[in-house]
Amino acid sequence: MASALINVPARARRGEVIEVKTLISHPMETGFRRSQLGALIPRDIIRLFVCTYNGTEVFRAELHPAIAANPFIVFSTVATESGTIAFRWTGDNGFSVAESVTIAVD
Amino acid sequence: MRRLCAAAGAIAVAASAFAGEIPHSERRSGYDFMSRETRAMQDDDSANPGLLWVLDGEGLWHRKTGTASRSCADCHGDARASMKGVAARHPSFDAAQGRPVSLEQRINVCRINQQKAPPLAWESRDLLALTAYVARQSRGLPIDLAIDQRTRPFLDAGRAAFHRRQGQLNLACSQCHDDNWGRRLAGNIVPQAHPTGYPLYRLEWQSLGSLQRRLRNCLVGMRAEAHEYGAPELVDLELFLMWRAGGMTFEAPAVRP
Question: How high is the pLDDT of residue B17?
């Protein structure tokens, strides 16, 4: 069950700097840990997070094994126009989650 | 003079027996011992990872399951109304079992009897999610356990366990959490052990966990043999700790370091 929590203001003034908060459910298994029987637990992490604002990429982050489970990514962007802010997380084992929110700019 | 000394000694002994109990005015949730950043994480619903489990739990609440093909919502309706305050009064007495059961056990009793579904495993994603969803509905309410004739013996057993020295370190829970709270155990501040926010997201676990998981952690730390999940000893201890935190604000799903 992959689920994500996103917090973006529903309305903003044009040119205003808005804060975007994202939280996604993911174990972020490092690939360095061993099971109780000594076998290596295979790596399972999110590799890439991309945010697009009406199709234009505004934020991108590469994730690595040292990042804790359930990555919480916060960044800011400028509210330019009304539309859709879309998020995509991709990672190991075909992990891919897409979410989007709408924002009204006046 | 000797009699006076003896009397003074008796008073000192009596006083020390109660010295450990934390006065109501000095009770503090683990939240108060946390850093500003961790507190902010708990307070902001879009930063609190516990909300991911609450979200999953909401989905499970409405999903039909078991041979009865019934969802939680089919009987209990809107959890926001029907589950309000429920977590703040658990463990509570279960007549069929003749003893108190924890919230996780209550959910599984419902699954077995009403949904005709197999019980969920302890600490499984689904059980934590459902527990977190139910517990969330009590957020902000005071912890309020009804102790009566039937639950009193179990409360006493929990209290005895809390004050009993155990493990290779020969420690009692009360030695840390009643007598030395606020001081440091290595880098960590010793809290008062009020279970106000379970199930909670522990940064150390990188996951949500139940109160029983936490209790088992503590037992291992004391180098005592940890009871199995769902063991009566753990439920009794849960009951005592919740009673001890009576009146404090319920804050599930909390975040702890």
Answer: 43
CA–CA distance, A49 with A44 (Å, rounded to integer): 15
When scoring A8, A21, A22, A25 by the number of chain B Cβ atoms within 10 A, the one with the most, hence best to mutate, is: A25
ipTM of this complex: 0.88
Q: Per the CB < 8 Å rule, is B49 touching A7?
A: no
- The answer, as to whether pTM is greater than 0.80, is yes
Distance from CA of B47 to the nearest CA of A (A): 7
Q: What CATH number does residue A65 fall under?
A: 2.60.40.10
d(CA B232, CA B101): 9
Residue B56 contacts A, CB cutoff 8 Å: yes
List of domains in chain B:
26-257 (1.10.760.10)
pLDDT tens by residue, B109-136 = 999 999 999 999 999 999 999 999 999 9
- Per-residue pLDDT tens for A11-43? 999 999 999 999 999 999 999 999 999 999 999
Query: How many alpha carbons fall within 13 Å on the CB side of residue B212?
Result: 22
Q: Which domain holds residue A28?
A: 4-105
Give the count of domains, chain A: 1
**Nearest beta carbon to residue A3 from set B52, B203, B207:** B52
Cα three-residue angle B50-B36-A101, rounded to 5 degrees:
45
The size of the A-B interface in CB pairs under 8 A is 39
For the stretch A54-84, pLDDT in tens is 999 999 999 999 999 999 999 999 999 999 9
Contact list, A69 vs chain B (CB under 8 Å) = 49, 206-207
Active site includes B218? yes
**Which string of b and e fits A39-65 if b means at least 16 CB within 10 Å?**
eeeebbbbeebebbbeeeebbebebee
